[in-house]
Design brief:
The structure is a single chain. The protein is mainly alpha-helical and 184 residues long. The protein is built from five helices and two strands. A hairpin with a 4-residue loop joins β1 and β2. 23% of the residues are buried. Part of the tripartite ATP-independent periplasmic (TRAP) transport system.
């Protein structure tokens, strides 16, 4: 009998490899953003303290760019590593089969909700790109429409990781059960 899973396995591997690359890139961008944000805010505070000069747009850049990047881009990495917050008081006493089904249902629900959020963010990004949304900083107009696309990118990466996990069913050990001794 022929193995019919081979034609399906190749696209899943390709999708998984794409997800891995996107997760790595978004995680690096978020990590670099944290460093740049710290340097930017520190420079602004230092200039204000020493020379009574402010860096124009610091608050707006932090609010509309840095925080969006730091908040949305790492979602897919957290999902990949199984590091999202979970409440597991009841699940620890359930049989393993039930926890596997429950985890699948949670992943499908999470993918659906995150997909809806991604769709809403893309719709917002299209509208705001169309009219070139800006925020006045007091010194200049800061275009904020690109930040909407960055938030959608983070949600899209999360949906992709969830989809790969759902399809491939290659999961981390159940987050509801402790790892065997010496496994960590």
């Amino acid at each position: 009998m022929q193995n019919d899973s081979k034609p399906i396995a190749a696209p899943i591997r390709a999708l998984s490899a794409l997800a891995e690359r996107i997760v790595a890139v978004t995680a690096w961008i978020a990590a670099i953003t944290v460093i740049v944000m710290c340097l930017h805010v520190s420079a602004s505070a230092l200039l204000r303290s020493l020379f009574n000069v402010t860096l124009p747009g610091t608050v707006e850049i932090v609010m509309y760019y840095y925080m969006v990047l730091v908040a949305f881009l790492p979602w897919s990495m957290a999902q990949k590593l199984g590091e999202h917050v979970s409440v597991d008081m009841l699940v620890t006493v359930l049989p393993d089969r039930v926890t596997v089904v429950l985890q699948l249902l949670v992943d499908v629900f999470s993918a659906a909700v995150t997909g809806i959020l991604c769709w809403a963010l893309v719709s917002m990004a299209i509208r705001q790109t169309g009219f070139g949304q800006i925020v006045e900083t007091g010194w200049f107009g800061l275009p904020v429409w690109p930040a909407r696309w960055l938030a959608a990118l983070g949600c899209g990466a999360m949906v992709l990781v969830l989809a790969v996990q759902i399809i491939s069913r290659r999961r981390l050990p159940s987050p509801y059960r402790p790892l065997p001794e010496g496994a960590a």
